[in-house]
Specification:
The chain has about 200 residues and is mostly beta strands. The protein is built from no helices and 23 strands.
C-alpha cells in the first residue's frame, strides 16, 4: 500500500479473479499523457489510492462493490499454514487525482460509492452494455462523465455530484436514461448534459 500498482508484460490482462481489491498510495495504472490502464477480468472490484489516480479497464462485465479478501497461506511444509483475512473495502476512491473505470464488453454496475478529487469517467462498452448506478458518484471539483453503449439507470436516492466548476456529462448512446425517484444530478458551479437515443426520465 506504500507505492503504485501498474501492469506490464505482453499479456492483454493483468489480473484474472472472481473478486479483486486494489489499494495503492500513488496510483493504479497511470493517467494523463501516455496513460496506461490496469486490465482486469474480474466480477467484483474495489480500488483505492490516496494520492495518485485510478485507470482500470475490465474485459467484460464488472460491479464496483465492497470486497473483502481471504486466502489460505501455505506453510513451509507444503501444508495449510493459516488463514489470512483483509478487511472489506468499499467502492472506488482516488483521493488525490482522477478516476477512470471502463468495461470493454459488458455492463458496469456501481454498488458502492465512487469518488475522486479530480475527473471521473465511468463507461460501459459493448452492444448490450448498461451502466447501473446504485450508489453515489462524487468529485471534489472535477468533471464527471458517465457513458453506456445502451442504457443508463440511476437508482432511487443516488446522486452524481461535483463541486467547483465541474460539469456532468451523461449519455446513453444506444438506449434510454432513467433516473428513479429522488435520484439527483448536481453540478454546483458547472453545466449538466444528459443525452440518450431513446427516452430520458428525470427523477
Amino acid at each position: 500500500q506504500g507505492g503504485w500498482i501498474r501492469g506490464y508484460g505482453t499479456g492483454p490482462v493483468n489480473v484474472t479473479a472472481s473478486s479483486l481489491r486494489l489499494a495503492a498510495s500513488t496510483g493504479i495504472g497511470t493517467l494523463g499523457s501516455g496513460a496506461t490502464t490496469f486490465t482486469t477480468t474480474v466480477s467484483t472490484l474495489n480500488a483505492s489510492t490516496s494520492s495518485g489516480g485510478i485507470n482500470i479497464t475490465e474485459t467484460d462485465s464488472l460491479v464496483i462493490a465492497a470486497v473483502g479478501v481471504s486466502v489460505n497461506r501455505v506453510a513451509e511444509s507444503g501444508e495449510l499454514g493459516g488463514f489470512i483475512v483483509d478487511d472489506s473495502q468499499a467502492g472506488a476512491t482516488a483521493t488525490g487525482s482522477a478516476l477512470v473505470i471502463r468495461t470493454l464488453a459488458g455492463a458496469l454496475g456501481v454498488s458502492n460509492g465512487v469518488s475522486a478529487a479530480g475527473n471521473i469517467r465511468l463507461e460501459a462498452v459493448g452492444a448490450a452494455a448498461d451502466l447501473a448506478v446504485g450508489a453515489g458518484i462524487s468529485s471534489g471539483g472535477g468533471h464527471i462523465t458517465l457513458l453506456a453503449a445502451r442504457n443508463i439507470q440511476l437508482a432511487a436516492g443516488t446522486s452524481v455530484r461535483t463541486g467547483g466548476n465541474g460539469t456532468l456529462d451523461l449519455e446513453a448512446v444506444g438506449g434510454t436514461l432513467a433516473m428513479a425517484d429522488a435520484a439527483r444530478l448536481e453540478a454546483i458551479g458547472g453545466n449538466i448534459r444528459v443525452r440518450a437515443q431513446g427516452n430520458v426520465t428525470v427523477g
